[in-house]
Amino acid sequence: MTLARLAARHGVATVHSPADGADVPVPEATVVAVLAALGVDASTPEAVAAALAAAERADRERLLPPTLVHWRTGDGGEEPGAGPHERTDPAGEPPLRPPAHLPPGTRLQVTTEDGAVVLGDDWSGLPLGVHTVEAEAPDGRTATGTLIVSPARVPGPERRAYGLLVQLYSLLSTRSWGMGDLGDLRELVTWAGRRHGAGFVQVNPLHAGVPGAPADPSPYRPSSRRFPDPVHLRIEEIPEYALIGPERREELDRILADAAELRERVLGKGALIDRDAVWEVKRRALELLLTSVEPGPGRRADFHDFLAGRGRALEDHATYQALAERHGPHWRAWPDALRTPRAAEAAVRADPALAARVDFHCRLAWLTDRQLADAAGAAREAGMEIGIVHDLAVGVHPEGSDAWAGQEAFAAGMSVGAPPDAFNSRGQDWGLPPWRPDALAAAGYAPYRGLLRELLRHAGALRIDHVMGLFRLWWVPEGREPTEGTYVRYDADAMLAVLVLEAHRAGALVIGEDLGTVEPGVREELARRGVFGTSVLWFERDWAGTGRPLPPEEWRAECVATATTHDLPSTAARLSGDHVVLRHRLGLLPGDLERERVADRAETAEWRGLFERLGLLPEGPGEEAEIRAVHRYLLATPARMVGVWLPDAVGDRRPQNLPGTWDEYPNWRLPVAGPDGQPLTLEALAASPRAHALLSELHARTAPPGARHVQAFATFAPWTRRTPCAPAPSRPVRR
């Protein structure tokens, strides 16, 4: 019981409840290991008693908690002139006052983030922001804490919108170098917004990957979540490209020829996307450009402003990148003098070649940031109400830049995962080190604030992968099975306050990926703060009752409604049953193939019958018509955002990622393809009658009254061959 009390004080669960509701005890060795990762010795009964006594004594003596949170009603919760869809701010938020438990006579001082000083206990006029509180008790005790004053909720979209969901690397144009890039993203948002009235485009995480080859192709296990990966750069659109001199032109032509070969391998020869090969060619081009062309004074000033705005965080990231080039990406194997950022500073100062590489990587971050800004600007110019939705991965690679630069904030020897559930009896270990909740609180959530601020710079919305991690995460001690992990709780109030504050400042929406096991109250609290959820058609059933598909009118409104995600079968594969065959071929089916196929056909028939009864399938059976029926169903729900998995628009049957596989399936390496599996360029996709029919209908059904709907068949560019196409069916959806 003493160990359980100690664990509870540090947010460590000693029991957990899987899907069936039965309590499962956590192994004692797991609890001890997790507490050790939090700096608490629980290795013996005596150590447990001493740690518990120390914690209770600290509670009695503490004047201020490390972080205080105040939600301010009326700030950002409702936009002026908002329509009837906007909810009012949460009621009952208390006025902003100092903690009630402070001893009488305690002197208080608040220094706002802008440097203003407020003395005394009248905090009613404090602005939104992250402020510093200092307290001095009459007995001489002092304390310093962080005060987060946040709007009560994230504002919602002005009106209903539909958009596209795409893994950017998978969308190659005839100009990209073997994988989709930021130039392709700019073209996609322009086409989707101007020609099809899309309100947003959601992409995969564009975080920096771990350097070295072979690199992990997953965008959800990055080196750094704070900085983007320059592999996404469109080289020809870097201003220095046009200024390359004739003396280096031959070298550049060789690089361009290699880039064309990479593109042809994927689009013409059926090769997989090779991120390592793409980066090797782009790195050569970037080194050529940045060493051959001196930027003008305006460009140089812009770069220096960028450096000043990013500060030490960018310097640390660039230093890691430079050191990884020389010593390999696994920083725990580096010489002792390089294993921490502050120690590595001396090595950089003493080595001009290393300092030059640090500067090179800073410039790559700057160039990538500017192309991200261009893509965001193109989305606005195309009339998108929301714009680009960026994706925040749940964690980082243990040997990457963020883990090296912020070692004190990560729990050593721990990995994030998921407990056993109805879909995976073995649980999951994602190989991502978790943030220490105590370290975040002690730092006033500075690592989290900096991360969000950077990601929101060019985002119309931010999707948060596994948003339940703001409340708790499943920690798995190194060397143990995922079944032997436990939940560790975070201060969700503080995590949400930082998120809402930064989203408010950026004018961005927030979308939480809340699929899977969600503890009671989490979705309600997220909705209270204006964070949208994620609803996938096939999972929306009356699980507490009949188990049948949830009628469209019973769906929640504050969500992104989709037919699938990057981790699920495409809609064509699900309707055809191809996903069952694929899983069987890879040995992933839990039971007999024929039995699984019968169950899958019955489920699909149930949905198909529902579409027919609701009048959503007037064309009759057929894959293309049924995919349109799926999206008509999504439009029949009250969901404020409807997402179209872009490969569904052209009938792609292959998932981008098949959970549970590694070498067995080419996860994260497939280009968007047609029903026959042949890759489709962005130009071909934009010229597809099938894609046009689906997107035109979505536009017509989400456009505000009186808005112009583009009926003419619009291709990717004015010089592309135009192919006539019949307009989408106009039969109304039964609601």
Give the structure's gist in a few sentences:
The chain is 36% helix and 14% strand. With 735 residues, the protein is an alpha/beta fold.
- Total number of beta strands: 21
Terminus-to-terminus distance: 55 Å
The helix/strand class is: alpha/beta
Q: If helices are DSSP runs of H or I spanning 4 or more residues, what is the number of helices?
A: 21
Low-confidence stretches: 76-91, 709-735
Tell me about this structure:
This protein is of the alpha/beta class. Helices cover 36% and strands 14% of the residues. It has 21 helices and 21 strands. The strands form five sheets. An eight-stranded parallel beta sheet has the order 18-15-12-9-8-21-20-19. Strands 3-7-6-4-5 form a five-stranded mixed beta sheet. Helix 4 packs parallel to helix 10 (352-381).
Produce the secondary structure layout.
Layout: H1 2-9, E1 15-16, E2 24-25, H2 28-37, H3 45-61, E3 67-72, E4 107-111, E5 117-119, E6 129-136, E7 142-151, E8 161-166, H4 182-196, E9 200-203, E10 207-208, E11 224-228, H5 249-267, H6 275-292, H7 297-310, H8 312-327, H9 341-350, H10 352-381, E12 387-392, H11 401-405, E13 414-418, E14 428-432, H12 437-442, H13 446-455, E15 461-464, E16 472-477, E17 486-489, H14 492-506, E18 509-512, H15 522-528, E19 533-536, E20 559-562, H16 571-576, H17 578-585, H18 593-613, H19 623-636, E21 641-645, H20 682-686, H21 689-702
Please supply descriptive tags for the structure shown above.
alpha/beta; eight-stranded parallel beta sheet; five-stranded mixed beta sheet; disordered C terminus
